[in-house]
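Progress narrative, work stream C.
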Amino acid sequence: MKAIVHVALKNGVLDPQGKAVADTLARMGYKEVAAARIGKVIELDLEDGLSSDAAEARVKEMCEKLLANTVIESYRFELMN
C-alpha cells in the first residue's frame, strides 16, 4: 500500500518561496500567474498486511507528529493499493 501525503501552508500564512516563484514567473512573461503557493508531496510505501483503517490511522498520526507542522500547515493524504 502507498500513502501520498500533500502538505501546504495554511491560508493566511506568508509563503515567501511562493511569492518569489510568482514574481519570477511574471518577470519571465507569465503575467497570468497572480500568486503561487509552495508545498510538498511525501510518498510513503507501507508494508503489506495493514488494513485500510489501520493505515489511515497510522498515516494521520505520522502527519500530526512529524510530516506537517499543524500550526501553519494543512495536510491531506490518499491511500493507494
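Work stream C, second folded protein:
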Amino acid sequence: MSNANRPVYLRLRDEICAAILDGVYPEGAMLPSVRAYAAQQGANPLTVAKAYQQFQDEGLVTVQRGIGMFVAPGAVAALRERERAAFLSDEWPEIAARMRRLGISFRDVTEKT
C-alpha cells in the first residue's frame, strides 16, 4: 500500500516512530502534546491522539498525568525490531525483485552509498 493510501494516523505513527529511532525523541524524552503535534502536522488532534494511543497500548510511551507522554525505556530497541521485521517481510521482497529485474547487485547499491 502506498503511503498516500495509508490512514493519516498510521502515517503520523510512522513519522513519530522514525523520530524516535532517529533520536529526535530519545528514551525518556517528552513527546509533543497532541495539540502541538496536530498543529505542526496540520492534522486533527483526534487523529494524533489515535496514533499516540497505539504507542501507549504497545508500552512504547508512558503517560504522566498533567505533564505529558514520554518515550519509554526500551522503546528504541522494540521499535527497531518491529520495523526491521516489517521491512524484511513487507518491503524487502518487492525491492529485491525489482533489483533482480533491473540487474542491480548488492555491490552496485553499496558502492553508491
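Helices lie at 8-21, 34-41, 45-57, 75-102, 106-112. No further action is required on this item.
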